[in-house]
Amino acid sequence: MNIHEYQARELFMQYGIPVSVGKMAETARQAAEIAGRINPPYILKAQIHSGGRGKAGGVKVVRELKDVEKQASELFGRILVTRQTGPQGKKVRKILVAEAAQINEEYYVAVSVDRSAGQVVLLGCRDGGVEIEEIARSAPEKIVKTGFSLKTGLKDYHIRYFLDQMKLPYSKELAGIIAGMVRLFIEKDCSLVEINPLALTSEGYMAVDAKINFDDNALYRHPEIEILRDPDEEDPYEMQAKQAGLSYISIGGNIGCMVNGAGLAMATMDLIQSLGARPANFLDVGGTATVERVTKAFEIIMSDPEVKIILVNIFGGIVRCEVIAQGIVEAVKVTDLKVPVVVRFEGTNMEAAREIIRDSQMHIVSADSLGEAARYCAEYVSKEVR
After folding, report:
1. How are beta strands 95-99 and 42-46 bridged, if at all?
2. Which residue among 14, 127, 221, 369 has its CA within the 20 to 30 Å range from the CA of 166?
3. pTM of this structure
4. What percent of the chain has pLDDT over 70?
5. Which are the catalytic amino acids?
6. Residue 298 φ/ψ region, left for φ over 0, alpha for ψ in the -120 to 50 degree band, beta for the rest
7. 317 lies in the same domain as 185
């Protein structure tokens, strides 16, 4: 789960991480009122769940108070298109109004997870204020990393080593910021805590930008975080899927996928990709799929106009194949599907499932293997594209 920058700043303050003076506005008039209570110059920052807002025109520096309302009104309602939003962009509904920091130097600092090492890791770069993904591609040697185990926790020597790698002098101020980031990361079950840039000003160090991502699987422990969710920033179909007990993520291809089990879903997508085709989505109906859930899964997949064919890959274990087969037949009836469906069943009651598909007399292709099903879909969409 992601939150807005203004929300991340509030959490930063709770953990002793200094931020510039500012507040969120939902109207241009409100933005002017906030600016009237702080010192110029002012920064107006569009609040959408995406990086690269500055390049997209979502960050404005305003020198005089009289210009704030006009500049804010030009941001509200604007569609910002970034690398992360995709071509559809995101609409600006909120703006952070803050004092512009007088920056002498800026750095990148983050706390994340190194999955290969099984550790929490401090990430840093002396080139702050730019997209870290670009640095990782063009000059990965500039990114420094210091890992530590949750069993031992963050120690002062970890911070000293990290700052030495960053070629920054050790100070209680910097150590306090890093320790606060780590404490926030652990106590709130985050997947990322990022400051970009961490600015050195005449008054000391300050987080000029704030980004926090949370582990969805741990949100049940944090109702205070769950209420920060902004429905306007969520994919509506992903929200519908979550409410129906489905895991769905749209990824922009044209072969719709419905699979039971996250690992099998990833393998299915990989196989489609290896055949030169593009999966449209990740969709895991789970190990306790019902007819109703399968029907909802079809509705969500078909909400994507780019989908040309649907591949259903089911391995019957906890869930029985014939339950999914019945769900597929019912879904085809009620959703009035306009695209072909290819199904592959393996495991518990797979023969009964195949019989249900055959007896339905619907245009549903039954494949004997995942390879056969994926090849059929890849060949079909290649003809459609032509």
Report:
1. antiparallel
2. 14
3. 0.79
4. 98
5. 108, 194
6. alpha
7. no
